[in-house]
Amino acid sequence: MKYTVNGFSQEALVSLGLDMRDAGVLRWFIDFQATGFMKRIEHDGKIFFWVLYDKVLEELPIAGNNKYTIRRIFDKYVEVGLMEKHVEKKDGSYSTFRLVEEVYSKLVSSTTEGRVNMVGGCDKNVTPGCDKNARTKNSSSILNSSSNNIPLVKREPKNEYEKVEKEYLLNYEKLYEHHKVQTDKPIVNWNKTRGMLKQLFLTVDSKIIITALKRATQDDFCLETGYSLDVILSKAVLNRLINSKNTENVEERERTCPICGSHDIGPIGCRTCHYDFCTPPDEWKKMLEE
After folding, report:
1. Same domain as 225, residue 275
2. pLDDT tens for each residue of 203-259
3. What are the residues whose beta carbons fall under 8 Å from the beta carbon of 79, sequence distance 6 or more?
4. N or C: which end of the chain has fewer CB within 10 A?
5. Structural domain of residue 278, as residue ranges?
């Protein structure tokens, strides 16, 4: 059986009763959310993301024939406990969703018993700072990967991979201490993230990735998804963490909301009507009418 589908554990998808179409739409949601351009709504202290069903259908016509099909898919996510739904009824009515971390983590973590991973070792063909004599270890090797069984967080990294992984683990520990994440140990498919790093190291220096990991500790989306390493290393999220410019210039440029005329302007949009500056005003008004 193929282990992953669209980056999710096939075994976990099946256990939730999700199929290929469900996995495809879920991937769209994760990728779009990672861009930072998805409209956010805060409700009961939680961040929800606005989903425009017509927009999903426009980008994924293979997912269904009409927007009601897309709506049923998102309702299915809610039914199986993968997402929570909130209908925002201010300046219109629109559906917003958020991932349930405990359930989502099962889709992106390794669940196969005895699955070999590369943490603490590496593919002998990998060149960027990796020990070619290293051997693959079991799923806990990132925490105790040395001949003396010393945890990575308490020793010097042996290669570029371990430098990134140590930074991630130290950051995760601090987040746990401040109650930003719920489990004392991160749930990570280390084999997958080592493979992602292998590709990233072809074009990105480890120091830049480490800086992105630090920025991710203050990023709403990264925290909302449980400070997941494979989410942070995904191209869309990593690119945003590395290259996004300071938003102060946006606030200077947009002092008056073109939708409601409010002067209560935040870094990315209007705090009064929730208009975001990434969407043209005419398109925003059209979406509200729908």
Report:
1. no
2. 889 999 999 999 998 888 888 888 999 889 998 889 888 887 543 343 334 457 777
3. none
4. N
5. 248-289
